[in-house]
Design a protein that fits this description.
Keywords: Allosteric enzyme, Glycosyltransferase, GTP-binding, Nucleotide-binding, Transferase. This protein has 217 residues and is an alpha/beta fold. It has six helices and twelve strands.
């Protein structure tokens, strides 16, 4: 798996990340969603540099221009619900992409800190031999991403898999490296310190889904 850390150089990306983490600014859910969306746009641009392109001729009002365009289809697939705002940022740039959505959540079967990942709702197009971009803001343990990809892989094989996360923990990255195929790219906006005893990212930013869309039961 190839890992791309896109916040290593200072840019406006780090400005948006700072606002996401700020406990005062993040109280504004509309601003929180917008910052996630902006980060998605930046990540989409950086990811686009690794795709394959083909030469084409385009007619302008005054002549012909030799240029390039993306050679192969892109499918955007988000893990609900936290992935929706990040998905919008990617969709703003990959506006011809097909779109898919999958639900995954932690099920605490003993009503304690232990859990299993349940993947239920799925609505996704074919991604056979396409570039699949799986979108999930927080990479904590990595179990949700692996569970979703295992479910999506039952019948179809993408050409390449790109995983886009805003904040990642080292434990989650290690888990993906052990459990995902070599043709995966992991795009990380920010790498944090570790997971706590409840497997939440430290220092992190809190629950991205709740901050974006309100608390859940």
């Amino acid at each position: 798996m190839q890992i791309h850390y896109i916040s290593e150089q200072n840019s406006i990306l780090n400005h948006f990340l700072t606002q996401l983490r700020d406990i005062h600014i993040q109280k504004d859910s509309m601003r929180f969603r917008k910052n996630i969306e902006r980060i998605g746009e930046i990540m989409a641009y950086e990811l686009s540099k690794t795709l394959e392109y083909k030469a084409i001729d385009v007619r302008t009002p005054l002549g012909i221009k030799h240029t390039t365009t993306i050679a192969e289809p892109v499918v955007l697939c988000s893990i609900l619900r936290a992935g929706l705002a990040l998905h919008q940022g990617f969709m703003n740039f990959f506006d011809d992409a097909e779109n898919g959505f999958v639900s995954a959540y932690r099920y605490h079967f003993n009503h304690d800190d232990s859990f299993e990942i349940r993947v239920e709702y799925q609505a996704a197009p074919s991604f056979e031999n396409k570039n699949l971009i799986l979108i999930d803001p927080m990479l904590a343990t990595g179990q949700s991403i692996v569970a979703v990809l295992q479910k999506l892989h039952l019948e179809q094989k993408p050409k390449e898999i790109h995983i886009a996360v805003v904040i990642a923990a080292p434990e989650g990255i290690e888990y993906l490296e052990k459990n995902l195929p070599e043709n995966c790219h992991l795009w990380v906006a920010a790498l944090d310190d570790k997971l706590n005893e409840k497997n939440y990212i430290l220092p992190g930013l809190g629950d991205a889904g709740d901050l974006a869309y309100g608390s859940k039961l």
